[in-house]
Input
Amino acid sequence: MTEIKGVGVLGCGLMGSGIAQVAAAAGYDTLVRDVSRDIWDRARAGIEKSLAKFVEKGKLTAAQRDAALKRLTFTTTTGDLARCDIVVEAVTEDLELKNALWQELDGRSAPATIFASNTSSLTIAAMAAATRRGDRFVGLHFFNPVPLMPLIEVVRTVTTSEETFRRAFAFAKSLGKEPVAAKDNSGFIVNLLLVPYLLDAIRAVEHGVASVPDIDKAMQLGCGYPMGPLTLLDLVGLDTTYRIAEIMFTEYREQRYAPPPLLKHMVIAGLNGRKSGKGFYDYSVDPPKLVALGI
Ligand code: CAA
Ligand code: NAD
Output
């Protein structure tokens, strides 16, 4: 069994930056690829801030933080990731984009290299089939915010080898996470259940069931959820949620996965949530204030 030393991360948005952070903090040399240096600068600033919080809380020493930052490098060339022992993909939720990157890497990576996608809603089989390493392809589904959420769903397709699955499971554990095995159905375990809930919360806003803050407050105080569904949608990203809903609706043809019109309209308006500064709430002020939606 080849030891995993080098980790490649495709994409350093919300998830890729978190995945790169936990990989570097766990001791792996971590090479990150995104489309521009500006995106990396923003991601690195977020990683530094997050590691600083862990140091503040005594969960990490200053020396461990510095060592983790040293293990992180960046490239704009996909082929550079060919030297990594595992590549975790976290680019935009788009099958064509993901498969173009996988195909570019497939011919160049070492035979033992594992390909792992962090997709929320695509089947892993749809990516594995685009490569010649169906036996070395898994899903590694992390949760947002990656440095804080303990779960990773480890997804095996019909072609994933037992050895690859075991290595991916062990890798997830080595990151300090709790892996669970999940079947390769769209949404795996968590999103199968979570996505209809989030979409229903948007439908509740559309139907005027209650105000946005009251819907959030109700689910926090009534069910003990750490954040309300509309705050969570802002965290996940409305653009990403829209893509996820479209993919899951196409897969299952069930109304509960259908993206509500309000979600689509907010995405068209650039109200993508925290990452764009505004979604259901406006994050330019602290505490965030409600965005007045014309509905
Ligand atoms: N790195 C390090 N520390 C961080 C951090 C980060 N990125 N973000 C927050 N923290 C720290 C804060 O500084 C804070 O520290 P103190 O206790 O010292 O104040 C602590 O963590 C708690 O943070 P907050 O007070 O800001 O907020 P919180 O208590 O609500 O906890 C949370 C934050 C862990 C995110 C919690 O709200 C939560 O669990 N929310 C739900 C998240 C969730 O459901 N994620 C799944 C999304 S779905 C998904 O990921 C799958 C998909 O495919 C879409
Ligand atoms: P994001 O929009 O924050 O980041 C996507 C990143 O992909 C961007 O930085 C973008 O520049 C980059 N990218 C686009 N084309 C690229 C290319 N050709 N090469 C390299 N990078 C490229 O999205 P995100 O929220 O980080 O989601 C990424 C993946 O993780 C998606 O598959 C999503 O479904 C999944 N996911 C998201 C969440 C969440 O809560 N947001 C949770 C779990 C899984």
Q: What stands out?
A: The chain has a mean pLDDT of 97.
